[in-house]
Amino acid sequence: MITSKDVAIKAGVSVSTVSRVFSNHESISEKVRKKVLAVAEELHYIPDTRARNLKLNKRNTYGVIISDSNNPFYLKVITRFNALPDNRDMKMLIMFSEEDASLEYSNIISLLSSKVRAILFTPTGESDAKIEPMLVANEVPGLQLYRHKFDGLDFLAIDDAYGAYLATKELIDNGHRDIALIDYDLAVPTHRDEGYIRAFKEANLPYKKRNIIRLRFNDNIDDTMMEVLRNKEHTAIIPVGAIMIHSLYRCLNNLNLRVKEDISIVGYDDVNMAEYLGLTVISHPFRDIAFVANEIIKNRINDPKMKPQHVCLKPFLISRDSVKKIK
Predict the structure, then answer these.
(1) Cα–Cα distance between 276 and 26 in angstroms, integer?
(2) Same fold, 56-158+286-313 and 160-283
(3) How high is the pLDDT of residue 130?
(4) Is it the case that residue 58 has pLDDT exceeding 80?
(5) Which of 79, 179, 238, 256 has its Cα between 20 and 30 A from that of 302?
């Protein structure tokens, strides 16, 4: 491995001079700077900034824990977060918990030991209670995305009840009454069922509890979709998340059923290809999520003792061509 000592020897300067060049120290002449940089490029030397950043108490890395690697929601949020002007020179250290509380806990410890600037994570249903005091003691902001588990940590939510309300209302307004909401059964509730029920109540229509279908993460989603489609009890389906939406389209294809003509769909996620497929969806304000997350973290860094910030953003409906109007 090429070190600063190798650069110093070849450039005929001291190791401390090489260090000063890469820290843009004003005492280094332009002639020496150019010479050292030319040698460094020739040797493919990459300076290690970690020690300097720790010495200056400068943390330029965000820690991110993704609870579900199959969910594109997190990638969309993190991509936009990283693109913000404040974060263009920041690094992202991304880890995965896959809804495993013990893995999440070890991820938190690893990120804290890496001296990250802040940690963005979606708590699992059984997150370790020690996570909150660990973050507070180490003065590392912990921002809960999407799920609220720790009262003492900042929280940025999406109003899923409102999103489900919009999806259900869109279908009811188009004449649908037998609507299946197919969602995940999570230890941390999303309240989508409340939005579903609200839409029926506002329309003065009865709803069937059995039409709210909850699946565990280890359930076979295709089997459930095939059962719902074969029973032919529903004229419309609200599948939650990219995996369920993809499963539904796969099963429709296997059964030679057509979107809109045979079954109406409002997807709860603006998945890739949704626009091409003409799929009406509930989408999320990803740029707003990224901006607000950044503001929450900056506020916490500036005032570590401030009360926990709880912000809830609303999703919105994108109407395309997957809902049939029933007279």
Answers:
(1) 55
(2) yes
(3) 92
(4) no
(5) 79
